Amino acid sequence: MSDQQASIPILELDDISARIPLLEKIGTDVLRLIQRRDEILGQTRSPGRGVEEKSPTLVELKEELRTLSRKLEAYREEVKELGGILATPDAATMEFLGEIDGCLAWFSWQPGENSIDHWRPVDGDPGERIPLLVKQDDLDTDDLIYPLD
Predict the structure, then answer these.
(1) Residue 95 DSSP symbol
(2) Residue 76 and residue 16: Cα distance in Å, rounded?
(3) Does residue 130 lie within any of the structural domains?
(4) Element (H, E) at 28
(5) Which of 50, 66, 123, 127 fits a disulfide with 88 by CB distance 3.0 to 4.6 angstroms?
(6) Furthest-apart CA pair in the chain: how many Å?
(7) DSSP-derived 3-state class of residue 83
(8) What is the domain range of residue 128?
């Protein structure tokens, strides 16, 4: 178990689902913060912007970036207090350690989702999302080495 996993509780799916209303608020706030960060970065990286390095506007934007960074860390802590991690801030993906068929896994949630419908292996990449339920139509069995019959 990694250091990150050692400090995170193993939760039941129902426990995580009960947190969704709060996760929705946090996720919406994180997405708004990321959008503002990207706007500021776009303004400060524009070639020929005509803004000198020490201009009041640039100084203010840099200070706002520092404030946004502190807020993002506060959201990370808030998700951690709820038993999870903010896996990918750009999509506000939050993950919670749980078990699937007796094996550790990360349950994954994003803003706008009404339930926990995705997961990833503990050794998978943060933000990787695999559906918990696979529809028969989604299965591509033509390329299987070992057919399902």
Answers:
(1) E
(2) 16
(3) yes
(4) helix 20-45
(5) 127
(6) 70
(7) coil
(8) 9-138
